[in-house]
Known about the structure:
Jelly Rolls, single chain, Arc Repressor Mutant, subunit A, 2 domains, four-stranded antiparallel β-sheet, alpha+beta
Amino acid sequence: MMKVVHFTDLLNQDFFAAKVIAHYHYWNDGSTWSAPETGRTSHAFMYFYDCSGDYYINNQLVTTAYQSNIAYLPKCAKYTARFSKSESVEQISNKTGIITDSSVENYFIDGSHTKEIKGKNMKLSAIFVGFDLYDGNHNEIALSESIEVFRFKNHNFFFSLFQDITMHARYSNISPVKLSIDLYEIIMAISQSMFKQQFYSETHMAIYPAIKYLATNDLGQVTVPELAKACGLCPSRFRILFKEVIGQSPIDYIQNLKIEKARQLLQSGEMTVTDVAFNIGFHDLGYFSRFYKKKTGRNPSEELLR
Length: 306
């Protein structure tokens, strides 16, 4: 069985690619393509530009890639893909500057390779990149045991990477090294994006108890050590993680929560300025008034009249 090195692990490993190819795909609505009985002959990425793809294994739907998604298809994978056109189809020349009504070389229509077509205005469905992958010891590796679909917010950036490698692949005088470099950029961009998603997801979960604690306890009595304890972290580590996820220090975050709660209480008209100050933990009315004005630009008494 081929060794699997997941995307995020590639950031710390040597690897190289071979037999890199790239071309444009044009799929009619409802078209299907099935891998050979022995499975795919190479790894592949598919960038779904203006279509979606359902992937089936043993007639069971396992995943779907939508417009702007990236699918990773492992070598030896056995599957059938069914393609659907997006509702809003645009000419690729509108977005990329590629001329589509003249000769186009090295592209695939419904999975069949065609060298050249003239006089047809083709509409790009997807971009395909095929490759083999090896670790630093020249052992063949895969990036996953199964089909994976990636959904990144910066899809325009990824489209530009896929467009670059495909344009380079259309010229016979381009060195295979250049195509490998283009592929490395795609793989590393995916790896780094996945690492960031995983990092922020795990970090967010680490500080979630603190967010919950703040929502269910008296803001006037909460301390940073209490929040750190709720998360099972030491105060110094908690402060670092909290700032990385929330973008504010715990103290600033608590103060902003206090200001928002004070504003709501003042505007409700049910409490005096003094009552509101005590409610959120201020025992010096003068200090509360200065603090509130510094944060909002208004005196607390002004909120009572709003």
